[in-house]
Model the fold of this input.
Amino acid sequence: AALITRGLAEITKITEARGGNPMTMLSLAGVGDLLLTCTATMSRNYSVGYRLGKGETLEEVQGSMSEVAEGVKTAKSVHFLAQELGIEVPICEQVYQVLYNGKSLSDAIGELLDREAGVEIGCATAVDGRPPAS
Done:
């Protein structure tokens, strides 16, 4: 639950930083896709993460897949986009470090668990598009 909730906060932060409506992330395009990716064993991205967790390398996983798990390339794009935007997306960053820099899963998870709790969703816009009343 924490990973999904914080993941939703990260994709919402990216959406807002790029000028998008944060409410979009509460639709099928946001939370719907996130839930499917995190829970559906038929999801290609889920499969990659599961197999990495079982100890396979990214090269082994990708070499045996007949379809592309788009999240692998997306992780690299998000890493550079977050740097460009100057925003912090810790889960996305740890995924990038595991996939592209050989960071161990246990170290990545440890760093995420060591973080201080913060605001999960900080949407600056109300449902009707106006700023919330103060």
